[in-house]
Design a protein that fits this description.
Two copies of one chain form a homodimer. Chain A has seven helices and nine strands; from the N terminus they run H-E-E-E-E-H-E-H-E-E-H-H-H-E-E-H. The first copy, chain A, has 258 residues and is of the alpha+beta class. Chain A has two domains: 171 residues, Nucleoside Triphosphate Pyrophosphohydrolase (Alpha-Beta Complex); 61 residues, Orthogonal Bundle (Arc Repressor Mutant, subunit A). The first copy, chain A, is elongated, with a radius of gyration of 21 Å. At the A-B interface, strand 1, helix 2, strand 5 and helix 4 of A face strand 1, helix 2, strand 5 and helix 4 of B.
Chain lengths: 258, 258
């Protein structure tokens, strides 16, 4: 959706193609060179930053919509993408920006009763990507993007700061339950590599020896009978995520309870 | 909503009072005498069981709607109630029952284009209650209720068996993160009491000594300087949930990562 004509069609008739009252917001975490960042888009004219998002097509399964929206924005497919919360305690999210301002800034020919100004619940999804591999696309409403450091997120539109906080809390809570990092590490990795990723996500130091013991005890990773040659006296063992075993356990409702 | 007139008004004009396309389904876990059960309602005429649920008022905050629906069904307030997942991968949930069948069974004077037959995403909430204290209310569409044992849930309407599975998996995953049991145990409890609750929820035996050590190490419970006199030679120590400390930590985004 990039031209004025496409946008006019979307604001006038979008509720025929998409479900009204529900949208998807994506908190896209990027990890590269031991830095954790979040992708934000700048809304043209509003001078505010916001999360990438979109609507669900009327016959489209929810999780498919979440993948489509992420793919449209980043060009990436088959990502670790997970629903984490529905935000609906702010009854008039869009109306915190007045319809007048919205209509004027974007030159829209619509009334205050347009479907986009009705109450919308946001379903939050979070993704983990390698941000050096992402090609971000802005659209008609946005004119810039930036990967913001997790500790330096600016004030966001609507209640999206709360969404980012909740996504980060969920990620941290699940880090020892889910194969988080599966998309960020090579298929076979060393303990220092996964240790560094987890320290960055958790934002604190972890004792490397206890850390690797714990991941093994939880059955989250598996030691391989293979080493990587780094130097003449350094050839650390390689490890792999136990992704299949874990997914099977999740399906059967058996989860780590340690 | 109990009389034919109230129901006629709801099916004809409910979309003016409630948000269409989104509903709330409640998985209400009941615990009593060391048994874990789920509340199901029988749909009159459809000969099927389903979860208690309802719609969100147009200006009502989402979490308030979830509490209202639960209160309407059980008479209980201030419960442990938590959102756990949005179900939206089955595009036509209601249409799995045909509109014809629905219209005929309940004597409704509406067309196939009624708002109730449109696609609806379900936001799942789970609650923990003491089922001996609950007064269940059925309504126009339902004519019976039953507390079903967790292991013996019958085939449910729509995709609700999946919802029950997911609720149970979430409950088990969070049992060492959240003060689950806070509403089910007395304010001060003994280790055998909480041990028995956790064994029931997890559906497996737990070594009592390791179990209590773990809860204390996680900061989930606190030992009091008080004992309960059970008999001449038995006076076990009492414990309390560290609810406030935990909620404060959650707010600040600090979560147990052990």
């Amino acid at each position: 959706m990039n031209t004025q004509r496409e946008v006019d069609e979307f604001v006038k008739n979008g509720h025929r193609e998409y479900l009204p009252h529900v949208s998807i917001d994506s908190v896209i975490f990027g990890y590269h060179d031991q830095q954790l960042r979040i992708l934000l888009l700048r809304w043209r004219g509003l001078e505010g930053w916001g999360l990438p998002g979109g609507f669900i097509r009327r016959r489209e399964p929810l999780s498919q919509a979440a993948h489509r929206i992420l793919q449209e924005r980043t060009g990436l497919e088959d990502l670790f993408l997970q629903q984490f919360h529905v935000f609906g305690d702010t009854p008039y999210r869009v109306r915190e920006r007045s319809p007048e301002e919205f209509i004027e800034k974007y030159g829209l020919d619509i009334g205050h009763d347009n479907w986009l100004f009705e109450r919308t619940l946001s379903i939050g999804y979070f993704a983990l990507v390698d941000y050096s591999k992402v090609t971000v696309r802005t659209d008609f409403f946005t004119d810039a993007y930036q990967w913001w450091e997790v500790g330096e997120i600016p004030p966001l539109l609507f209640d999206q700061n709360e969404e980012v906080e909740k996504a980060l809390a969920t990620l941290r809570l699940q880090i020892y339950h889910q194969p988080i990092g599966y998309n960020l590490l090579p298929e076979k990795f060393t303990i220092p590599e996964i240790h560094s990723l987890y320290e960055t996500i958790l934002g604190k130091e972890l004792d490397q020896r206890n850390f690797s013991k714990k991941l093994l005890a939880l059955g989250l990773i598996r030691k391989l009978d293979e080493r990587r040659a780094i130097g003449p006296h350094r050839s650390p063992y390689l490890y792999q995520f136990e992704k299949e075993a874990y997914e099977e356990a999740l399906k059967q409702g058996i989860v780590h309870t340690y």
